[in-house]
Specification:
heterodimer, A: about 150 residues, alpha+beta, Ubiquitin-like (UB roll), DNA polymerase, domain 1, 2 domains, 5-stranded mixed β-sheet, 5 helices, globular, B: alpha+beta, 31 strands
Chain lengths: ~150, ~750
């Protein structure tokens, strides 16, 4: 066990966990932020996507010991009350079905648009193909990203 | 007032006052079940709390509607309340939706599956809404001293021509004292203002902000995390274990075994068992338990043949589940052997033997499809807190009503001592209709004497599943010298069931028709998977019809329409399950909307398929291209007839999703076994369709009619497979008979 001081959604928090613990489980089991989802545990599905200093990463394979001073943003901290343009676009296009993967989808999409505000179709493909949606809402995800990019 | 009599049909709807002046209208679905299943219910009636009803109106005019059925992405938490709101005549903006608890007495069957939710609740929910409205009108009439017939409603406001008006909330307390009307008139579809008008997902805002909605998110203080180390292969069982290393790991509480079913236990139809004796590890946090589980030293041995007592629809029967360790290659060989043997007759019309004997040409093709894993995005998990007196279980579950009786028997607790809460499900696809993971969680909690959350990893979920069966079918068509279809024969089999729906199209359209089936039992557990059986039939049969049309020199849509015309005008045999006119309707609509056969589409590599299942009709045309050496579906046109569409945009979303799901499973989906062990274990080796592989465009068209609504979650899924196969032929010049079409199955494992 070791103590880690983390900056999560603009707040400073400390946890006492095994250094190998993936950030996903620190968030879910220790901090109580369950918006970040467990899907595969091997960075294959993207359900656990968070931002590390604004960049999308898969938290299920990211040990807490690797975070250092980098700021963590989760779906709960992306905006106040779901007002991020990507979240608003998700509502506009009524994207979710079961909804389980959508936090990860939104985190991937918002990271893409931050670094590349007007992505091409190919760039969206590259950024989003690591996030599986078993319900198949991909078309609406595409529409929502385009809507968010246009604003 | 009649509504104190539990046995009366008139107790169907009940009203009650809420503390603070509100109004609650509840429904009693099965009055007799109420009395028999839950004694003491009558005494509880006056104290009904808000979650027990369908409709709650508070004095400040908040309209709370309870969704009876579990939500797994089919959007019932929006569409079912829309049906109530329509008849209640309220402003949708004032509606708050909550998931109801498990209470089949007050909330009906509560089963999410079989594309049943809308169909099942269409009349009851609208009746509830209309009755509440009528009671509010009556309350206003008494308060104002005017005839009820002179009062109108609009968007939650009661008005009298004399100028008086009141919000529903103001009349709610009074309405609770009004007898429930015995008969209410429901709206004509032409008067709908909410139904047929798209409404956003009632939980959309919670989803996009990461609120704890799912079973995985459910937690209580002091809860232990539990994981199961299941045998490494179907057909194996635990021999012995050494937990000493695991128990030394940080955060670990205990390692023990549990047994689910005692010898001779009478299993219900949905008590599909995978493994009976389970090695369990519990601890404080998920990561600690995951790590420590790897330190368990377990020895396994062949389980041998297992006798099970099944209580199915046909009554009690003993089943012997063979102990062999399955290999996919050997299974395929076994299926080929069985296919040659005599099979069970499922349907026969005319004289198929003579038709085939006299045929000028016989077309015969065999289709194979592998096991499929459901791969819900949220792996199986469940919370349980079981004590000697009572049990609380909570999590993602499609069929609480089926789980309750088994839980009651396993825990030796009466049903009224078992509380089942349904969370939102991260996907279901049929998998969560089978309660084994619920029973596991409950038995673990009982043993641990603590609240526990059972967690499956993705590997547990995929290798320890309840899969879509492995299927095969051989189709034969007899053509005469003029290329007329004079005989049709299907012989289907599978492990452990065949898929044949003998009374569906093209039954009814061919004079000489024969359907047969056979089965091979296996210890690999199977269950419903989005449109069970249909999802294979639509692949095989619709591919075959495409090939037959080609042999006859006919357009594949025109050929199907000819058969349907025959079936409609002069049907062969009885018990044809489908409506030939509606079936033809979706084919015509998809043909017209896609510009099928139009010069501008000549260069497209198009495939068509249609299917009827779960009382609805679906047809798709897919446009395929080759991209980077792989087939890619670029664009899809879909036509659906599910009667009245409650929530059109959400319905289109579901159809688009079904198309994507269908393409993914048709091209890539396969679960194979080697020595009883699943060879695919996670998303690195089980291919799921991804963002860049989904079509750029899926145009969804609904047949417009006023027929009572039927299912939509499943019907659009099966024909995708056939349309993909037929487009693949146009694109590559090669017919595909084995799923997955872009994969390597069948391969010899």
């Amino acid at each position: 066990m070791a103590k880690f001081n983390l900056k999560i959604n603009q707040k400073n928090l400390s946890v006492d966990v095994d250094p190998s613990t993936p950030v996903l489980w620190v968030l879910r089991d220790h901090i109580g932020l369950t918006g970040t989802k467990f899907g595969c545990g091997m960075a294959q599905c993207g359900a656990c996507t968070i931002h590390l200093d604004g960049n999308a990463v898969r938290s299920c394979v990211l040990p807490v010991s690797a975070i250092g001073k980098q700021a963590i943003t989760t779906i709960e901290g992306l905006s106040a009350n779901g007002t991020h343009p990507v979240q608003k676009a998700w509502i506009e296009h009524d994207v979710p079905q079961c909804g389980y993967c959508q936090a990860g989808q939104i985190m991937s999409a918002s990271s893409l648009l931050k670094s590349n505000p007007k992505p091409t179709d190919e760039e969206i493909d590259a950024a989003m193909s690591g996030n599986i949606c078993r319900c198949g809402t991909y078309l609406r995800i595409r529409e929502a990203i385009k809507t968010a990019a246009s604003k | 007032m009649e509504n104190n009599n539990q046995y009366s049909r008139r107790s169907f709807l009940k009203s009650s006052a809420l503390t603070g002046g509100g109004f609650l209208l509840s429904m009693t679905w099965f009055a007799k079940v109420s009395a028999a299943g839950k004694p003491g219910e009558a005494a509880l009636m006056p104290e009904w709390q808000e979650l027990n009803g369908y409709i709650k109106i508070t004095p400040d005019n908040v309209i709370k509607l309870i969704c009876p059925n579990p939500e797994f992405g089919q959007n019932v938490m929006t569409s079912l309340p829309m049906m109530v709101a329509e008849e209640l005549d309220v402003d949708w903006k004032n509606v708050v939706v909550e998931m109801g608890p498990h209470d089949s007495v007050k909330l009906g069957p509560q089963f999410t599956g079989g594309s049943n939710s809308i169909r099942m609740y269409w009349k009851p929910l609208r009746t509830a809404g209309a009755s509440a409205r009528q009671m509010l009108i009556e309350a206003a009439a008494q308060t104002w001293g005017v005839p009820a017939g002179e009062i109108t409603t609009k968007a939650g406001v009661l008005s009298h021509k004399g100028g008086k008006s009141a919000k529903y909330g103001e009349m709610a307390a009074k309405a609770a004292t009004i007898p429930v009307p015995k008969d209410v008139k429901l709206k004509s579809p032409k008067d709908f203002t909410i139904i047929r008008n798209s409404k956003k997902n009632s939980e959309g805002q919670k989803i996009i902000t990461g609120k704890p909605l799912f079973g995985m998110d459910y937690k209580v203080d002091g809860m232990l995390i539990a994981m199961i180390q299941h045998p490494p292969a179907f057909g194996m069982k635990l021999k012995s274990f050494d937990a000493s290393q695991a128990l030394k790991m940080p955060g670990i509480k205990d390692v023990f075994t549990i047994r689910l079913y005692e010898e001779g236990f009478e299993q219900g139809g949905f008590d599909t068992r995978t493994f009976n004796e389970l090695l369990v590890i519990t601890g404080k946090t998920t990561w600690e338990v995951m790590n420590a589980r790897k330190k368990l030293l377990a020895q396994w041995e062949p389980a041998g043949d297992i006798k099970e007592t099944m209580m199915g629809r046909g009554g009690k029967r003993e089943v012997v589940v063979p102990g062999r360790l399955e290999n996919t290659g050997a299974q395929l060989e076994m299926m080929q052997e069985y296919a040659k043997k005599p099979a069970q007759l499922l349907r026969k019309d005319g004289d198929p033997e003579t038709a085939f004997k006299n045929a000028a040409q016989i077309i015969e093709r065999t289709y194979n499809a592998p096991f499929l894993a459901h791969n819900c995005m949220e792996p199986m998990n469940f919370f349980a807190h079981v004590t000697d007196e009572k049990a609380l279980v909570a999590g993602p579950l499609q069929a609480p009503g089926w789980v309750e009786p088994t839980l009651s028997k396993l825990l030796k607790l009466p049903p009224e001592k078992i509380e089942i809460q349904m969370t939102r499900m991260g996907g279901g696809f049929g998998r969560r209709a089978y309660g084994q993971y619920v029973y596991e969680a409950a038995m673990i909690s009982k043993h641990a004497k603590a609240p526990v959350k059972l967690m499956y990893t993705r590997e547990d979920d995929m290798t320890y599943g309840i899969y879509r069966p492995m299927y095969t079918a051989t189709y034969r068509a007899a053509l005469d010298e003029n290329k007329n279809l004079i005989g049709f024969h299907v012989k289907g089999g599978g492990i452990p069931e065949n898929a044949i729906h003998a009374n569906r199209f093209p039954a009814g359209a061919v004079d000489n028709y024969l359907a047969e089936g056979w089965e091979i039992s296996s210890n690999i557990t199977i269950g419903a998977f989005r449109a069970p059986r249909s999802n294979f039939n639509a692949a095989a049969e619709q591919s075959f019809l495409d090939e037959v049309a080609e042999a006859m020199g006919k357009d594949p849509i025109a050929f199907r329409l000819e058969l349907l015309k025959r079936s409609k005008e002069n049907p062969v045999g009885k018990n044809n399950e489908y409506d030939a006119g509606r079936y033809a309707g979706v084919l015509e609509l998809v043909r017209d909307k896609s510009g099928w056969g139009k010069p501008e589409n000549k260069g497209k590599k198009r495939g068509v398929a249609a299917y009827f299942c779960h009382n609805s009709y679906a047809a798709h045309i897919v446009d395929m291209v080759e991209r980077d050496g792989e087939p890619y579906v670029e664009s899809v046109t879909s036509a659906i007839d599910c009667g009245i569409v409650i929530n059109p945009d959400a319905a289109a979303n579901m159809v688009q999703g079904a198309v994507v799901d269908g393409i993914g499973n048709a091209l890539y989906g396969a679960l194979t076994h080697k020595n009883g062990a699943a060879e695919q274990t996670n998303f690195n080796n089980y291919r799921i369709i991804r963002y860049n592989e989904a079509p750029k465009n899926i145009d969804v068209h609904f047949v417009q009619n006023d027929i009572d609504p039927t299912g939509l979650g499943e019907p659009p899924f099966p024909p995708v497979f056939g349309a993909v196969a037929n487009a693949l032929y146009k694109s590559t010049g090669k017919r595909h008979y084995n799923q997955p079409y872009a994969g390597e199955f069948p391969k010899n494992s």
